[in-house]
Amino acid sequence: MSGASPVSLERQGDIGIITVNYPPVNALGPGVAEGIKDCLARGNTDPAIKAMVLIGAGRSFIAGADIRGFGTNRPRLPLGQRVYDTLDASEKPVIAAIHGYALGGGFEIAMACHYRMALPSAKVGLPEVLIGILPGGGGTQRLPRLIGVKAALDMIVTGRHVPAPEAKRLGIIDELLPENADLHDSAIAYAMRIMGTRPSPRVRDRMVRLEDPGIFDAMRKSIARRARNQTAPYHCIAAVEASCAMPFDDGCRREADLFRELEDSAEARALRYAFFIEREVARLPDIPASTPVRDFTTAAVIGSGTMGGGIAMSFADFGFPVKIMDATPEALERGMQRIRDNYATSVRRGSLAENEMQRRLARIEPVAGYEDIADCDVVIEAVFEEMDVKKPVFAKLDEVMKPGALLFSNTSALDIDQLADMTKRPQDVAGTHFFSPANVMKLLEVVRGKASSPRTLATAMQMGRRIGKLSAMAGNTDGFVANRSRAPFNTEMVILLEEGCLPEQVDKVMVDFGYPMGPFAVGDLAGLDIGYASRKRRAAENPNFRMQPISDRLAEMGRYGQKTGAGWYRYEKGDRTPHPDPEVAAIIKEVSAGLGIPQREFADQEILRRLLFSSVNEACKILEEGKAYRPSDIDVMWLHGFGFPRYRGGLFFWADGIGVREVYNQIAAWHQQYGERWAPSRLLRDLAESGTSFREAKAAAFVP
Ligand code: 3HC
Q1: Rg (Cα) of the chain, in Å, rounded?
Q2: CB-ligand 1 contact for 101 (6 Å cutoff)
Q3: Calpha distance 534→541 (Å, rounded)
Q4: Per DSSP, what are the bridge partners of residue 53?
Q5: Is the C-alpha dihedral spanning 139, 145, 151, 153 positive or negative?
Q6: C-alpha–C-alpha distance, residues 203 and 273, integer Å
Q7: pTM value?
Q8: What is the pLDDT of residue 296?
Q9: Do 629 and 611 touch, CB atoms closer than 8 A?
Q10: Whose CA is nearest to atom 25 of ligand 1?
Q11: Which of 67, 461, 646 best tests ligand 1's pocket when mutated (most atoms within 8 Å of CB)?
Q12: Separation CA 336–CA 330 (nearest Å)
């Protein structure tokens, strides 16, 4: 091997240490697996070496196969010659010394080693299913042999990362080290202890422990809803099933066959794309990564309503102390009670431990007034969504907050520049648009005002990541990027009703497509009164604003959705199941007749395309106006703000599957039929003419 190999072997006494050094996370990039094989061979032939340690340099053991290499026709070694097989065949025992992550192929390598030790902060797992494939390095055959079928199926089908202490309990890790142990030295000591043991224990030689033969069908049933339209989770189950039905090598062959079927499937391509765009979104083309960010340790939230409370919980959930205030002590107490209730629900459902709830609650400090938050590093205003309510808050923040504190507004549509103008430090102001419920939804839109400084923006982006969000930058445009691109979808869905659709028909199409809920059912959950109020406000400002006669009628009847037991659907007391309501069907008929709109039948595909193409067109307008950096950022927003099915990649990725030309032709046809609201964007036309995909579309230079 040349000196440039990412894997090296050195000897310390009787022990050979194989180190993988392929930053940043030791993925199995070019030369890594080959390097390990080569070092193993050398270790086995060196008479001075009695046992070996496999360890990762930097922050991880091995994070798995190089995802960039999938779908690229890279050559593949036949079964029997892969690194896993070389480990199996190693005469001298090998210990995997794990820190950081041992994932996918990295964990499969660890399982092919003879012993495993780990630091308690390490995590192991087989997350392949999350990128639409299955473990292809023998993981589906070794894990059931190591920990039994039940636990293996759970890990492989969910793809979850298992913390080392749990991995020890499950039987994955032989030795769990104390937190401050030196992994390298401990691994050498371990190797010295076992170096005389022969034969070395191999996972492949163990019997599979099948606790319950019905487990496979039960698993298929239990994932039916979550995994609809997907193949990978089912192939994962089939591969584990093979581990019980055939000898190890045959099982590996079956695994390889199933792997090949998935590797370049539409679902795998979409999920890989999602993986990379979620990382790309953090890069701001016009703000260098080296921009100094403000280190924040304390945060404050103004307003303890649903949004403010959820934002405070997000900070507390990720270990940050946060102060929260409201206009009156009563409002604050109500807000705190809502927070306590939310946490208590999580404890009741078993997703949060009681003591962890106490720790989180202790981080949220209700305070009486502005003086109490003056020394916080960041403050997020989350008061009522009304310019006249928010403006005085910003004037007050300017007065009291320490110099350099960052002032963020949680608004979903208001002009951030007007709020910044209320202060003498507009460079420190930006929008941070959380999605509801704020402690659950992962998207954080960072809204860039005209004067927002690079430091403010870089800090806002980083703050989001530190509280578990995916931060995406948006320009200051009506509805910002996510909601603005979604707005035509919302308009189209009610126009479809006017033309003869029923809410349940539209919802079924969207659920079949992969959304967790249909848009009308979501409307009932959020409350129809909110949209109604905002439409009235917009109509007052803009005489051309199109009201929504059917939605308006429902709201005027007090049908606000789940909270009133009726909205687009009817609800039984204490039950959230939506039931189609003949009363709604009658209203739709009556209003449509009044409007003189001809009624007709709709095919599912037309419904789907009417909703999503309208948004594709708007998203193109956003790019051509330079209000977003790139198409993939909008895809991230759709994945994490609106529950767009991840295995379809995102709005643009999905539209690319249809083809720009076809999307354009359809939009142009609807423009003829329906008029102005379907006018194709310039960018869309240009893409169609030049045959460029949506994903390759270049946004105009960013305009705050
Ligand atoms: N392949 C290629 N690049 C990878 C990678 C991988 N497996 N894992 C991480 N990277 C890259 C990221 O794209 C990112 O690149 P960038 O800096 O250019 O954006 C960089 O490494 C750092 O990654 P993160 O920003 O995600 O770092 P974190 O510390 O937040 O997370 C991680 C680390 C948990 C390891 C996370 O990167 C991750 O989940 N990686 C994917 C792990 C995975 O899916 N492994 C299985 C691969 S499939 C497989 O092994 C098939 C086998 O069965 C044959």
Answers
A1: 28
A2: yes
A3: 11
A4: 17, 95
A5: positive
A6: 34
A7: 0.95
A8: 87
A9: no
A10: 279
A11: 67
A12: 10
pLDDT-derived band at 364 (thresholds 50, 70, 90) equals very high
* Structure-block tokens of residue 66: 């190089």
In this prediction, residues 82-111 reach a mean pLDDT of 97
Q: Whose CA is nearest to atom 33 of ligand 1?
A: 25
Domains along the sequence of the chain with CATH = 7-264 (3.90.226.10), 299-480 (3.40.50.720)
Helix, strand, coil percentages, rounded to 5, for the chain: 50, 10, 35
| DSSP bridge partners of 302 | 325, 381
103 lines ligand 1 (CB under 6 A): yes
Give CA–CA dist 637/655, Å, rounded: 15
Instruction: Say yes or no to pLDDT of 183 above 80.
Output: yes
Is the bond preceding residue 199 a cis peptide, omega within 30 degrees?
yes
Residue-level pLDDT at 2: 46
**Beta pairing, strands 94-98 & 115-118:** parallel
CA-to-CA dists, residue 214 to 59, 149, 219, 231, 286, angstroms: 40, 11, 9, 20, 56
**How many angstroms does the Cα of residue 27 sit away from the middle of ligand 1?**
7
Which three-class secondary structure string do you get for 417-477? Answer: HHHHCCCCCHHHEEEEEECCCCCCCCEEEEEECCCCCHHHHHHHHHHHHHCCCEEEEEECC
Token duo for residue 394 = 């910003």
Confidence band of 574 (pLDDT split at 50, 70, 90): confident
Q: For residues 177 and 165, what is the distance between their CA atoms, to the nearest angstrom?
A: 9
Question: What are the residue numbers of the active site?
Answer: 108, 128
Instruction: To the nearest 10°, report the CA torsion of 322, 328, 331, 336.
Output: 30
Contact indicator for 545, 538 with CB cutoff of 8 Å: yes
Residue 492 CB neighbours (<10 A):
23
Phi and psi at 12, nearest 5°, equal: -130, 105
Q: Which two tokens stand for residue 697?
A: 């579309």
Distance, C-alpha 659 to centroid of its chain: 26
CA distances (Å), origin 647, targets 127, 235, 461, 594, 599:
15, 15, 25, 42, 34
